[in-house]
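Model: You mentioned two targets. I'll fold them one after the other.
Researcher: Yes, keep them separate.
Model: Target one:
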Amino acid sequence: MSSKSPDSPLTLARCAQVAIAAAAVVDVFRAVAVQNRQIHPSAATRHTSGLVSQVFVYLMTIAAVLFLVWLARSRRNALVLAPQAALPGRGWLIGSWFVPVLNFFMPRQFVLDIGRASSPSWNPKRDSTQVNLWWAAWIGHGVVLTLTTQAAPGSRTALAVAEALMLAAAVLLCLLIERITSLQGAALGAPAPLSAVTQA
């Protein structure tokens, strides 16, 4: 057993979910404002896109920090619940998001490992599929947005696809945070989110 007492990451989960949702919504406005500036360049569109982009950067930074703190807490709890689980060190858990090439697949694997170690109730089919869908939407958003910026900066269809993927990734990640938090809360005897009743 770990020398550190485990605790449910419920508060962190809620904060991360709110920040992730807010960042995703603002990203839609940011993308529209930036494209509008490209199509109709003016002092007004430059000001609007700059302001919305700045707000997005702040929110995305907060969301990323809260998510990574929640992920590190969930990893610690998973090690207490399943000491035999082969989970990454905390530094590698966070650092893998920033290493080129590796950040295309390792974070997904680490989230899967934490989920599996959190409870025997982790459903290999349903829960793992949710992780895969989240990761596909997240990577897809980045790919489509990059291609749109470089090849078709004025395409509203491509922009809509990119932002739809961003919103989908945010929703799926919030649901994933809810699921892992519910499993750990139940295993640790802490109050679990109400949705745990329907997900069990």
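Model: Target two:
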Amino acid sequence: MRKWLLGAPLAALAAVAATDMRQTRYPILRTFPVLGHARMALTAIGPELRQYIVAGNDEERPFTRDQRDWVYESAETRATTFGFGTDNDIEFLEGYPIVKQRTFSDVTLSARPHAGQQLPLPPAKVLGAARGRARAYRPESLVSISAMSYGALSAPAVEALNRGAALSGALHNTGEGGLSPYHQNGADLVFQIGTAYFGVREDDGRFDIDKLVALTEKHPIRAIEIKLSQGAKPGLGGLLPAAKITEEVAAIRGIPMGEDCASPSRHTAFHDVDSMLDLVEEIADRTGLPVGIKSAVGDMSFWEDLATAMVPRDRGVDFITIDGGEGGTGAGPLVFTDAVSLPFRLGFPRVYSVFAEAGLTDDVMFIGSGKLGIPENAVVALALGVDMINVAREPMLSVGCIQAQKCHTGGCPTGVATQNPWLVRGVDPTAMAVRCSNYIRSLRRELVKVAGAVGVPHPGLIGPTDVELARGTRDAHTLADIYGYRDGWGLPGEDDARAITEFMVASGVAEYTAAVTPPGIRPRAGAPARD
């Protein structure tokens, strides 16, 4: 018996060794049979070892441990304060943002809002007002949930995000996968039209505007977003792996089971700026809703042509969502996620400058996305001229994501980005909705605090001279200097600035007692910028 107990494991190892030496797929197993499996096992769990044991607070990507902890603490309404000073190497980091506080200001915060307090924080601009859209409106929240489709995310995750958006007054973008039942839990929606036209297409895959009009009449859709590209994989269409396509997902999208769902890389409903604007105006006329576009930034000729076409003001988009190349809710080839399209801080200023040169910035609501759900990143975006912040991975973290980076495999361990029946049960929509709402409220609260430090009544009035990017200990330059912004760029127009100042005072968030032009109002031509 004892010999059998010893012989069986040895025989098993011999069998494994023989198999390893015969296989041709892995050279390491042919040269080191049996032992090579130890290396493969360590490689498989390497990400987890680095995340939980090896990596420092600022080393992980795409979100550092400090950043994830801030989201988690915000979602749980725990204290988001950190003791003993920063552990960032400010003196040695390139491009580190520094917000310049003011010693004296006529603006004060009337109360320090607490983590769970609902804080009114709409954007400075009214969406669709510049073009006179019939259903123009001012969103309740400057922060909104960016495009993430049902299918890419699980049903309870989408429901949690929608309920969280409703609790916090935020908009919820449907993503290009169509309008699902899980998007219908109380939040106002932005309906996204992708290249495959899911939910609004004919049997042959072409865009059907009548279906879009019918959707807008039955559901709380407040804006239409035409997706041109996204930061995670610009130039490629969306891709939903077969492992994540359930019967319900297939029915909503009108696609077959058992194979990857790949959207076209470009639209068929239009082919250039001129035909795109014709479609924008047709949709706006038929629905009355603001219509905008979402795109990553690459070749600038598109943006120059768009601005030129909008100068006569007879056609135009109501909003532009710029997705930085660091965006990541869509899985894509590594070369696309790493090297195609400009990161937000390079891409957005280029687009904004084109529209500023054309005198069109007051006509367009600028929306930014791409890791902007972290307060300091959001402040930089607002100072560059963004009017609203779209967040995606950060709300995913708030409802349970642990940055396992398995979204594309269908094996997300927390149930957020999978359709596996066992795994999705980990997400309770009701409980996670509260966490999502808490996170959005906390981000808005932090932005208001920073605005108070800068001496302006609203985060949208933080300008490009109020933030500098440091180059280690060598020097630092304002955003205006770095990106060539002229006086008044990056700020809302005078009417919008005055209106949002009056709103913040009337809502009790800020107190403003000065008898001069409120801080943040764009100076007249030739007037000096704020210091």
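Researcher: Noted. Anything on target two?
Model: The chain is about 35% helix and 10% strand.
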